[in-house]
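Table S2 (continued). Query chain:
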Amino acid sequence: MDQKEERLDVIIFGASGFTGKYTIYEGIKLLEGLRWGVAGRSREKLRKTVAEIEKKADKDLSELPIITADLKDADSLKQMAERCKVLINCCGPYRFYGEPVVKACIEAGTHHVDVSGEPQYMERMQLEYHQQAQERGVYVVSACGFDSIPADLGTVFLEQQFDGVVNSVETYLQVTSKIPHDGGAVLHYGTWESAIYGLAHANELRPLRTQLYKTRLPNFQPRLRDRMVVHKASFLNGWWAVPFPGSDRSVVMRSQRHFYDAEKKRPIQMKAYVAFESIVQVLAVAFVAIVFAIMCRFKFGRQMLLKFPKLFTFGYASHEGPTEKSMENAEFTIYFRGEGWDKDEKLLEPTDQFKSPPTKKIVTKVSGTNPGYGATCVALVLSALTILRESDKMPGTGGVYPPGAAYAKTSLIEQLCKNGFKFEVIKPLK
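Corresponding output:
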């Protein structure tokens, strides 16, 4: 049996971290029948983690392979990558720790998925490694968690249901809880850290994109305009909405750019918003966001934010992360409002312009529970499985892609729907 045949199907790297633990837990069910293992820097920590999950899942994991690999040791990373077909990378912030793992995977001919919500990291990986990944037949797909599977594949789903040409999509994220907030954290420290460095280095994006895309997209009309910074979303029973600062828009726009470049398809314009039930919540979030944005600009401010996460988020971010109870009771819904033209009005070329304003609308939604960790880890494991099983339906023979571009023609949406997600049309087409 040659080395390739002996490879494990999947390895979860960073398995003893917060996200890694939940990925193991979801992996027990989703990876059943496959050969998989866990990896990290400390064998002792990994053993403790496996024992903990074993007890929680009431499942014997004594035969689970444990592999040691250190981010500071390139050889150990390559040896780990050579042991599997797909590597699930849970070691963030990816700005600091992602590239050596991507590099090792490409060298080893191993596919790579992660849950990064960091546009600078994702776009730089595409710029620097897309060609190498293509040459090696390796798929590297980031944003495979709550950032940004629901938004990116939700946009793909909306277009599939539209039966025409979609001009624009506006997304509205709602996060609610079945129980009152217990005063504990909502975010784990790693997510908080990624957000701080992401905002601090946001100025890197423009030059990155200039290098990534040598030509600009045509100026498609009508342009999707920004709504007021605070506005009422009438179709959400009067909830208040503000621009969503996450990576959803940048991820969706990369997928749309791929469809334009590779398939000559008119790209969908997209704006992302987050909705709150009361104006008081909006004002509280706005206050934290303003303080956060100012402090991120200065080294001392960043140090303070990193040192005292609970203080600056009123307890919403911490090293301990959210409790099991609060995670299990959290629910998310992303509403998608799409506008475009009926199938009878299709254009000959993707660069052609419509002569009339959009004539057709649709509202769809993607929903699920435990967005931060449960849904994230389910989406992450299913993303890895899709590469294993359906790489023939993915673009080209490899490369660095966002999830919408990578999985649009696969059964990933169907698999997500079998595992806790709902993709649905909520308003009939007009």
